[in-house]
Backbone:
């Protein structure tokens, strides 16, 4: 029994030894694999060790095997004779190019085969992936701005890409290709000025090519940015350009962005201005809306303007209201009333028909909104009264008349007859008393102190300012030949006056110097005189006054143009010459009492018009500032910027583009007249 047991153990041991011998005596092993991730074009290297228990002569081959592809690619094959107990170490090298490995990618292994032995390497990845990292300077852009993009392109094996970057956005016409060096790139391009406002996705692609110009590794990403909507075009359309009084003007306002897309629901300021520059209507409405303006029978004839404004955009349309001569007739007892309902004086000859057989011709000249009255007379009796204007005949009804003859006498003439003389004398005396009392309450007090509020004594004109025909003042020094400011005026009328104060802070220094600064100041004052301004000196101040009665155009616009002109002249002097002029210009409009005696204007203050102009000039530093009143009255003709409580003029609008339309309108009226 013991013998049989020992034999069984020996038999089992021998069997195990026989089975284990191939594993020990013959094998293939892989090691020294250079990486776990390879990009296309990388160099691949691995070490294979072959050992045999008996002498073997066979081919050793290695294949690249990737589970994603059923076809393996042989990358090495060679015959080797390996003696019993010998080890053979081989280095397998290959370049992972498409020409060698075709489309094999993903998780792969190397299979090794020698005789009957088979072994595999550790798995590794083959890829063509490139990782892009990119940044854009900002994400919100206005049309026309520049976009800057920088980024990196790194292959999955952590090697920097040496290739190209391609940026494309067909909506904006962008198609750019630039090199990628050491894995870095930078791209800039301008957004088209008419680019549509929206959100955009910009595509980026990076790639490299092999020696056969075939794309190998590549990657892509995208960036998102927005283009803002900017209002660039403001338009106003009207149904009529020439309007008969009483017709309705309809208009529509459109606001478009840089791409021509309409922008709805934006607040638009609309102002309709009469020919005399006064505002007929001002309101806020939304872009895309329509509106209307109803003219009246007495709406002023001439060129009207319709202005719309939003931010820095303005648009203007002109329309003309034609002349209309219109009147209404009514009969009250024995008096015929004729009301001018048109927009021009009613100048016609009409026929007044009294009864069946008598016609009186009456010449009419009724001012705007005026009424003419005629007392009708005829031998006592009841008569039917009619009026024939030459266009229509209107029956006014019946009236009971008395008198010696058939007649129509103006009530104005009756008021001037001997029966009304006493009445008018009494009325004139009453009115004279009222005017005298009013004047005593409102006349300016005598000037006291250093303030120029009322200019108590005549103010001398600078000897540097050109003047003609000087007259002798109380001090024996010359004054302006056409202007004197007095503390009180016994008679005159209140007028709106433009007052411009020029303060020269370094006047004494300028006088002592031999520079041409005084000449530049004189030229500035000459510009005021060209506009019929009265000019006065008061220490460092030069005061310029233009009454409304002498202004060639609206006072506010005259003032804006004049201060802009003087400011430009003095600014230009300071740019060219060493001796600078330290100055400030202030302009204001207000009421003064104006009297003209022997060709000279005299002015007396009612309020603080002159003080305000001086105060503004004190504040201004080498610039011209205007008051709120000038800004409001000239707002359709100028663009301004606020500076504290006052305004600087940035631009005076040029309306010459509308001259052709205005001339056509005026010529048409001349022909029709």
Residues:
């Amino acid at each position: 029994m013991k013998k049989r047991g020992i034999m069984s153990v020996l038999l089992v041991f021998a069997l195990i030894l026989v089975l284990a011998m191939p594993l020990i005596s013959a094998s293939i092993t892989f090691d020294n694999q250079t990486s776990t991730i390879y990009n296309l074009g990388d160099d691949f290297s691995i070490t294979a060790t072959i050992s045999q228990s008996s002498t073997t002569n066979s081919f050793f081959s290695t294949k690249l095997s990737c589970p994603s592809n059923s076809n393996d690619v042989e990358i090495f094959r060679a015959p080797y004779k390996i003696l019993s107990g010998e080890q053979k170490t081989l280095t397998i090298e290959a370049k992972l190019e498409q020409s060698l490995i075709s489309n094999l990618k993903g998780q792969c292994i190397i299979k090794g085969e020698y005789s009957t032995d088979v072994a595999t390497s550790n798995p590794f990845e083959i890829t063509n992936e490139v990782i892009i990292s990119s940044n854009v300077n900002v994400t919100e852009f206005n049309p026309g701005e520049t976009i800057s993009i920088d980024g990196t392109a790194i292959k999955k094996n952590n090697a920097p890409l040496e290739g190209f970057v391609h940026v494309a956005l067909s909506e904006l016409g962008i198609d750019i290709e630039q090199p990628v060096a050491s894995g870095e790139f930078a791209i800039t391009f301008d957004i088209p000025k008419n680019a549509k406002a929206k959100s955009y996705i910009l595509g980026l692609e990076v790639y490299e090519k092999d020696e056969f110009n075939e794309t190998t590794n590549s990657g892509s990403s995208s960036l998102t940015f927005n283009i803002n909507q900017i209002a660039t075009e403001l338009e106003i359309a009207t149904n009529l350009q020439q309007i008969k009084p009483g017709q309705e003007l309809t208009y529509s306002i459109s606001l478009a962005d840089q791409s021509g897309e309409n922008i709805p629901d934006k607040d638009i300021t609309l102002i309709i201005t009469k020919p005399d520059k006064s505002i007929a209507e001002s309101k806020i409405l939304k872009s895309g809306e329509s509106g209307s303006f109803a003219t009246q029978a007495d709406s002023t004839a001439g060129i009207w303007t319709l202005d719309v404004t939003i931010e820095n955009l303005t648009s203007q349309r002109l329309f003309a209201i034609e002349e209309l001569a219109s009147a209404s007739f009514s009969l009250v007892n024995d008096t015929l009333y004729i009301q001018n309902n048109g927009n021009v004086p009613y100048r016609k000859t009409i026929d007044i028909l009294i009864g069946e057989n008598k016609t009186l011709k009456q010449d009419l000249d009724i001012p705007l909104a005026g009424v003419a009255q005629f007392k009708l007379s005829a031998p006592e009796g009841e008569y039917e009264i009619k009026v024939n204007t030459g266009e229509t005949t209107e029956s006014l009804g019946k009236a009971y008349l008395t008198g010696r003859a058939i007649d129509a006498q103006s009530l104005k003439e009756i008021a001037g007859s001997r029966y009304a003389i006493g009445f008018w004398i009494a009325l004139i005396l009453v009115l004279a008393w009222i005017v005298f009392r009013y004047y005593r309450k409102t006349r300016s007090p005598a000037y006291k102190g250093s303030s120029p509020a009322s200019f108590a004594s005549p103010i001398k004109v600078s000897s540097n300012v050109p003047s003609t025909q000087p007259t002798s003042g109380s001090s024996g020094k010359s004054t302006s030949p056409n202007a004197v400011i007095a503390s009180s005026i016994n008679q005159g009328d209140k007028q709106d006056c433009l007052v411009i104060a020029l303060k020269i802070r370094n006047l004494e220094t300028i006088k002592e110097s031999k520079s041409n600064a005084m000449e530049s100041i004189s030229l500035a004052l000459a510009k005021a005189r060209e506009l019929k301004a009265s000019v006065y000196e008061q220490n460092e101040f030069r005061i310029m006054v233009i009454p409304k009665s002498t202004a060639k155009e609206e006072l506010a616009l005259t003032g804006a143009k004049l201060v802009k002109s003087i400011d430009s002249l003095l600014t230009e002097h300071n740019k060219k010459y060493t001796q600078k002029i330290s100055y400030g210009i202030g302009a204001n409009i207000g009421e003064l009492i104006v009297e003209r005696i022997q060709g000279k204007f005299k002015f007396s203050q009612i309020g603080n018009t002159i003080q305000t102009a001086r105060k503004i000039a004190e504040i201004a530093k080498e610039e011209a500032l205007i008051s709120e009143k000038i800004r409001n009255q000239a707002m359709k003709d100028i663009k301004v910027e606020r500076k504290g409580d006052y305004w600087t003029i940035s631009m005076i609008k040029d309306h010459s583009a509308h001259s052709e339309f205005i001339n056509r309108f005026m010529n048409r009226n001349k022909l029709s007249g």
Notes: The chain has five domains: 22-127, 130-227, 231-321, 327-415, 471-657. Residues 17-25, 413-420, 444-490 have pLDDT under 50 and may be disordered.
